[in-house]
Amino acid sequence: MMQIVKTEIVVAVIGAVGVTGTIVGTVVGARFQANGGHAQAAAARAAANTAARAAWHQTMRDLRWTVLSAYLRAAAEADEADEAAHRTGAPADVEAAKKSFHAYRLAYAEAELIASDAVLPALTMLNERLQASHLQALQRALAAAAIRELQDRRRLGDSAASHSLLRLEEGMDQGFAQMEMVDLGRDVLRLLPETSERLYRISIILSFPRTCDEIINCTSAAEARSDLLAIDRTRLVNVIRTELGTTA
To answer: Taking Cα atoms as reference points, which of 82, 98, 101, 91 lies closest to residue 218?
Structure first.
């Protein structure tokens, strides 16, 4: 009898151990499954984040390409219009320069928003160069137009125009005081009645030796401006190419 009881106890214990093992196995298996699920979810999230970052970078690259390309085109057009105003001083060229520069300013505003920190310094430098050139074009337009007309007259044999321009050039070479140059500029421009209303203002512009030289010798001045602009533009283009990965 005692032996039977012991046997039943052993069987019960074995059964309990079996049930316990099954439960433990189920729990452990569930835990492994859960851990595996978490790992899969984490991997999926990491992959999604990587894809999102790649998509963002590609979108920004495409947007920067479009906006910065448009900016460079607008800068070139504004520079061409300003050079025409510098060269001729004609009202039509001055108005064209104003319109081109307005379009340029809009393009610059967009480029400034989209440019990375690496591109921004070169972008700002080129903008400052174009701002200065545009301001000079507007300030010097009337004086440039007057000097061009006097030069045309000199080529046609007008002795008064030839003498006046010679005096202006001598005044620059000899370093006359500014007020002397203002008076000299007014004397020169009195040959052109149509400039009389704004005579004093444009004669002041001619009183600065460097300004006067750039107006009289417009071709060499244009070449010098073009060289400086080319340096700033090349610097910006190189930075953009590095930024966009188009250097290879």
So the answer is: 82
